[in-house]
Design a protein that fits this description.
Layout: H1 36-48, H2 51-60, H3 76-83, H4 86-94, H5 110-116, H6 120-128, H7 143-149, H8 153-158, H9 198-203, H10 220-223, H11 247-270, H12 274-287, H13 292-305, H14 308-321, H15 326-338, H16 342-355, H17 360-384, H18 390-396
GO molecular function: Hsp90 protein binding
Subcellular location: Cytoplasm
Keywords: ANK repeat, Cytoplasm, Repeat, TPR repeat
Length: 397
């Protein structure tokens, strides 16, 4: 067997990738300052490259700059970077001062989103704006490593990572990082593994290439529902596995990892650490996107954190996957109650009780929703000196 060493050609544009990371300036919008429809329109405009719409919306609601989509928690900059919308990326970074190091719900930055999708132009813009190429997400990957896992070698090199054996790191292989990784990516059998600094990568730039590459193909589950991170659409942190692993072995491995993450999530939830529980359930979902119970559990964890929009998104996903399972409707009712939509919450609980008439949790949730409605009616009366209009009260009941 002949061992070959692969030399990566980096675009000449990499010479401009001078990394001078800045601290994150990101913050969350004040609660209630952005309604769900407005937030969705803002994120959709970023995905579609519609700067005109974004400019007008930001003028009306400046806090949109910090808005994060449901589920994975991408900012508009994350989405624009993932989709390769270079004009939006530059507008956000250099005209309205978006945070180049903003973190989503899984610890990934816009640079992770750009790198894992092979978006060279976005990577170079982020470098100019002070993005941090050494930041690791919750999988333990830097942006360069995320790019390498998805076979974007040129982007990986620009980000300072030029290894062909992605699993070989200090601290163990990808599969040993707290249960967060799958099989190590095999990006070039027999090629030598090495890490280089960003400066060394830039000095090695020699071969011109198109700086914009097509976005990573992803399923609607990964992109359209805003539930799963673009930077790891396969869920296992890799795009290829050892040739010795057949499909059945891989599936068994992923199933085991999903169960382990779910158990950790259950333990965290039981201890009241809802944020940690949500992260563990997210990890489990990466390995098993077909299990409605995982979305139900993460919905409960999000509700515990007060992230009711994310909780509702997961509950709706659960109900869609398992329409004859009453607990999913309970999760939906809890999220709606948290959002102040008592009338809709009542409908959700009643739908669950139609399936499971003896469900104690559903009955308790229904009582809570009705109590929330009465409380809102009392506040209305106290504020305005009269009862809620009859039609509104009837609809709420």
């Amino acid at each position: 067997t002949t061992t070959t060493t692969t030399t990566t050609s980096v675009p000449s544009a990499a010479a401009h990738a001078s990394w001078n990371p800045k601290p994150s300036t990101s913050r969350q919008p004040p609660p209630g300052s952005i309604d769900r429809a407005e937030g969705k329109r803002w994120i959709d405009a970023a995905k579609e490259g519609n700067i005109g719409t974004m400019r007008g919306m930001l003028g009306q609601t400046p806090t949109l700059l910090y808005h994060r989509s449901a589920g994975v928690g991408h900012t508009a900059l994350h989405w624009a970077c993932a989709r390769g919308e270079s004009a939006v990326v530059d507008w956000l970074l250099f005209e309205v001062d978006a945070d180049a190091n903003a973190l989503n719900a899984e610890g990934a930055t816009p640079l992770h989103a750009a790198a894992s999708n092979g978006q060279m132009a976005a990577v170079l813009s982020l470098a100019r704006a002070g993005a941090d190429p050494n930041r690791r997400d919750e999988n333990g990957d830097t942006p360069g490593e995320a790019a390498a896992r998805h076979s974007h070698a040129e982007v990986a090199a620009v980000c300072g990572f030029a290894a062909s054996g992605v699993g070989d790191r200090e601290g163990g292989s990808a599969g040993a990082r707290g249960g967060g990784g799958g099989a190590a990516a095999d990006l070039g059998a027999g090629s030598s593994a090495r890490r280089t600094s960003p400066a060394a990568s830039a000095r090695a730039a020699a071969t011109p290439a198109n700086p914009r590459t097509p976005p990573l193909a992803a399923s609607p589950d990964d992109l359209d529902d805003d539930l799963d991170d673009d930077s790891d659409s396969d869920g296992d942190g890799s795009t290829s596995s050892s040739s010795s692993d057949d499909e059945e072995t891989k599936n068994a491995k992923f199933a085991k990892m999903a169960v382990e993450a779910k158990e950790k999530g259950n333990a965290a939830f039981a201890s009241g650490d809802y944020a940690k529980a949500a992260k563990q359930f997210t990890m489990a979902i990466r390995f098993d996107k077909t299990n409605h119970v995982l979305f139900s559990n993460r919905s409960a964890a999000y509700s515990g954190c007060g992230k009711y929009e994310e909780a509702l998104a997961d509950a709706n996903r659960c109900v869609k996957m398992a329409p004859k399972w009453g607990k999913g409707y309970g999760r939906k009712g809890a999220a709606l109650t948290g959002l102040g939509q008592g009338g809709e919450a009542v409908k959700a609980y009643l739908a669950g009780l139609a399936i499971e008439p003896d469900g104690e949790a559903l009955r308790a949730g229904l009582a809570d929703a009705k109590a929330a409605i009465r409380s809102a009616q009392d506040r209305y009366k106290e504020m305005w000196g009269k009862d809620v209009p009859q039609q509104t009260a009837t609809e709420a009941a």
